[in-house]
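The material for today's practical consists of a large collection of protein records. Getting from the letters to the tokens is the skill we practise here. To make this concrete, we reproduce a full record directly below:
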Amino acid sequence: MEQQNVEQQLQQTKKPVRLHEQRGSVAVEFALILPVLAVLLFAVIDFGRMLWFKEVLVNATRDGARMGTLYDSGNNTAAIQARIQQSLIDGGMAPTNLVVATPNGNPTLQTTGDQVTITSTVDWNYLVLDKLVPAGTFSGTTLQAAITMVHE
């Protein structure tokens, strides 16, 4: 009997949790976490886009290097740069500040068996991260590709 009285007293002292006091807390939590999730989502999209264009740059540089290694093709550095630029445009990339370097000199002066190295560098701008993150954090990013092939 005494135990029943104690249980009744405990039940009477407990206050029930009221749902109307918690109403809206989910909306507040969602509003707090949404900007962080949005930045992460756009960061993943921008980095994926950058990696895709890096691959386009590598393939375009490979096209230019192949053009420079052909035997007696008469392709000079300007023709190689034009080929790389056209490959970038065909790949969906509008090259800004494209720099093509042939450290071994003019590929037309190479002889069979010499290595021809073509290096391409392009400025890269993020679409969303440049606008979301404080200025200067992601600016000045460059993509670079270097391909070495043997002259035929």
User: Anything to note?
Assistant: The chain has one domain: 24-150. Residues 24-150 form one domain. The chain is about 50% helix and 15% strand.
